[in-house]
Amino acid sequence: MIYVVIQFSCIIYLILNAQLENLATLEYWLLAIAVVIGLMAVVNMKPRNLNIVPTLKNQHQLVVKGIYHYIRHPMYTSVLLSCIAFTLSNAHYLAQGVMLLLVINLILKSNLEEKLLTQRFDTYQDYRNKTGRFLPFL
Length: 138
Known about the structure:
Distance between the termini: 27 Å
Number of strands: 0
Number of helices: 5
Structural class: mainly alpha
Largest sheet: none
CATH architecture: Up-down Bundle
Oligomer: single chain
Shape: globular
Strand content: under 5%
Order of helices and strands: HHHHH
């Protein structure tokens, strides 16, 4: 649960402290890509799989199609890209520190989720070897 608290605290801080007047073309592109990836993830995800807490539900199914064919955690990718855009609009060191905390938190949270998925699904390790965590092919 601490991962969720940290994640949402960082996101809220970065959104509330974004300096929207400083958004440039790069930031708008990052936000657009984040929205597309996030929407694709929601469309491809089985609704019964949706869970903000890093646990698996009883009826959880492994999704490996659509955006999940390329990225194991596209929702986190969407969050990271949008938060990077907000961080770039705010040159304050605290915003950069919060962004770093968010990246570390999502890596740790995804590690826990992947451990649970590996325990539940025999095919997860093979899927993991073929896809990127947050970016395709990485």
